[in-house]
Structure formats: C-alpha cells, structure tokens
Design brief:
153 residues; rod-shaped
Length: 153
C-alpha cells in the first residue's frame, strides 16, 4: 500500500515543546522575582549607594527573565499548534483510510488514541484504539477484525 498519501502525525514534537516551555518557566519565574526584589531594594538605597553597575545588573537580570518568559511563550504556542495540526492530520488520515460516516478522535496518549467511529455499513465502534503504522497510516484493530474475522478454533 502506498503510505506516502497520509499526512504527517507528530505528537512527539508537541510534547517536547511543552517540556521545554515548562523548563523555561521554572527558570524565568525565580529570575524575575529576584530581579523585582533587587529593584525594590535598590530603590530604597540612599543616593550614594545607587551605583550604575548595580542598576545595570538588575536591568540585565530582568531583561533575561522576560526574554526567557517570551521564549517559553513561543514554545508553548509551538506545542499547541503542533498538537492541533497533528490531531487534525490524524483525523484526516483516519477519514481517508476508513471513510467513516461518523468520527470522533480522542486525545493522544503517547502511543495511541481512542476513536469512536461508524463505518458506511452501519457498524459502530466506540473507544477503539488507533495506532500509527509506517508512513503515518492509521490502524484500528477493531475495524481490521470486522473485515477479517478471527478463525474459530
């Protein structure tokens, strides 16, 4: 079967982007809190103790904290768009492979997703597991056994 006709389904990258966003959040929040604390303490110092070097250090700390937070937001958006694109591609691939009259795709759990579908012959499957084969071909075992029954014995 020609599997190059299926759209790319890449949930792994979305989870990696989400993990990187979480790590960046862990770094940015304490850095911003420390910078805000230092700025508040700096503003209470008398005029002779407010040096340019300290002011520049606080400014750099806050700039880096906000830059890390902006990068975190970028990774969070990349994760969201990668996940939604992959979910739509999975839906389209199932639609292309099985031509169901009704289709509802659940969430991806790392290695498979659950689907509810109804085939053109009226057979309904609920909570069926869909996995991906090579070339992003969706495989639903319940549908396969519907068309290829298990031998008795």
């Amino acid at each position: 079967m020609d599997t190059s006709k299926f759209s790319e389904v890449d949930f792994f990258s979305a989870f990696i982007y989400l993990g990187v966003a979480g790590i960046l959040l862990v770094f940015s929040v304490p850095l911003l809190m420390h910078g805000a604390f230092r700025r508040r303490k700096f503003s209470k110092l008398s005029q002779g103790y407010q040096t340019y070097q300290t002011r520049a250090s606080i400014r750099n700390e806050l700039i880096v904290g906000w830059a890390i937070l902006a990068a975190m937001l970028g990774f969070l958006l990349a994760s969201y768009f990668t996940y939604t694109t992959s979910a739509q591609n999975l839906h389209d691939n199932i639609q292309q492979q099985y031509q169901p009259t009704e289709l509802s795709v659940g969430v991806w759990n790392g290695s498979w997703a659950t689907v509810d579908l109804q085939l053109p012959d009226g057979t309904r499957f609920t909570d069926s597991i869909v996995t991906l084969r090579a070339g992003y071909e969706p495989f639903i075992e319940d549908v396969w056994y519907h068309y290829n029954p298990k031998p008795n014995g």
